[in-house]
Amino acid sequence: EAKRRGKGMWVAYTGEMGARISAEAVLIREMTTAIEENQFSLVYQPIVRLSDERLTGVEALIRWNHPTRGMVSPVEFIPIAERTGQIVAIGRWALQEACRQAAEWRAEFPGVDSLTVGVNVAGRQLRDVQLVDDVAAALAINKLPPACLSIEVTETAVLDDEASNEAMLALRGLGVKLALDDFGTAASSLGLLLTCPVTTLKLDRSFVESINTVGRQSAVATAVSQMASALALASVAEGIETSEQRDLLRSLGYQYGQGYYWSRPVPPARIVELRLADLQRSAQPA
Ligand code: C2E
Ligand code: MG
Ligand code: MG
Ligand code: MG
């Protein structure tokens, strides 16, 4: 067991703590070169309109294909990247790549309504002075209509923060959509709706999980849907895994759904296939 002296204080590290700290230090170091070494990629999860289950959008989700560990989940590295600030560069890469992909899809399906592409933005990114310019540039370079892009922010990222509120207003000014992700999980969800210029509420997966068995879950889901419609916001239910959940959330008034029931996050080529299947379906006489 190692003991180290720092600033006149004795700090005791247990072996386990030390191992965890150095594993994290390795991850941090490896993240600095992961962009240039092309180790990040985006997968896309379909978002469907619940009324007809047509594909109307996708959410871009980052993956880290690590040379020795294989796929590292964003749940593992995004929080660390947020702490170190590396999320700014990683998030910029994700934004640019998602916009490039969105433009490619638009070119593949000329004359067809574009998919909305959702990009997650961490609190740290929202407070980065360059974010709004980055978004404007990504739209311009790819000739992407702003409404094709939906920026997803979590409640905790935007709580009571002047800088992030200004960034959100500027993003709305560009014409991009703004979704409040994981909605319902933070302490002050409701008050936030008064000041946060969002266009969309994404009900957190935790409320969908046991919606058919736990009364409280469905009470929250109902309230969020009613609030969205009262405030003229779009509503998305995340984490739908069964047809029962789909039916329930549709009956509660949710406009859009996302979850393993339709598809897990998939590589971009698979989205093209889903899109084609969708168009063929609409070409069939009813
Ligand atoms: P999120 O933005 O809330 O994304 C939804 C997460 O729920 C994704 O996990 C998705 O795979 C998962 N999910 C979707 N449907 C279902 C379902 O039916 N059942 C279950 N069990 N899970 C479902 P993923 O891809 O692991 O991403 C986790 C989180 O990492 C995201 O949560 C987001 O907060 C963050 N993240 C991912 N990509 C990025 C990124 O490019 N930038 C930033 N800043 N954060 C990202
Ligand atoms: Mg999200
Ligand atoms: Mg979410
Ligand atoms: Mg989430």
UniProtKB/TrEMBL annotation:
Assigned keywords, A-Z: Membrane, Transmembrane, Transmembrane helix
Domain EAL: 24-279
Keyword Zinc-finger carried by entry: no
Name under which the protein is recorded: Diguanylate cyclase
Entire protein: shown range: 480 to 765 of 765
